[in-house]
Amino acid sequence: MMRCLMSIYFMIVHLFSLNLVFSHLTRPPHNLSCYHCSTLNNGDSCRYLQLNDSGVQKSCKPNQMFCSVILFRYSADSSEYLFWSVERRCEETCQEGCNTVGERVKLFLCRSCCNGYLCNYGNTGLKALPDENYMILFTGMALYRYFSFFKTFETILWG
C-alpha cells in the first residue's frame, strides 16, 4: 500500500513539474504587438516589410493572442503561382495552413501564425509556438523516463 501511494505521489509531482516546464511554451503573451498592413492598402511597404517599421505596428487587443501572415497567390493556368497580396494582423485565433480556391483561375492562400512581439514579418510568422508533434514526443519521453526511473527506484528500495 505504501509503495502504491509513494508511486502516485511521485507521479503527481513529476507531472506537475512537466506542466511548469512546458506551460510557458504553450501560453501566448497577453500584451502582444503585431505588424498590421496589407499590400492592397499599404503597397509594397507591407510586402517588403522593414523590421521595426513603426508605421505598421499595432498593439493587439487583450483577446488577440496571435500575429498572422496571410499570403495570397494566384495562377491563371497550370504554371507557377504568382504573388497577389499579403496581409499582416492580430488574430484572436489562428489556424495555420494553405487552401486553393477556383478551377481555371486558382487562388492559393497560406496563413502562418506566431505569438511573439512583432513576429509576423517576412512571408511567414516566426514559429514561436511549439509544434504539437514535438510536444507529444517530449511528453512521451518524459513519461517513459519517469516510469523507468521509478521502476528502478522501487526495485532498489523494495527489491
UniProtKB/TrEMBL annotation:
Lyase listed as a keyword: no
Keywords from the UniProt entry: Signal
InterPro entries assigned: Ly-6/neurotoxin-like_GPI-ap (IPR051110), Snake_toxin-like_sf (IPR045860)
Keyword Signal appears in the UniProt entry: yes
SUPFAM superfamilies named among the record's database cross-references: Snake toxin-like
Signal peptide: 1-23
PANTHER family: PROTEIN QUIVER, UPAR/LY6 DOMAIN-CONTAINING PROTEIN
Protein name as catalogued: Uncharacterized protein
Organism name: Trichonephila clavata
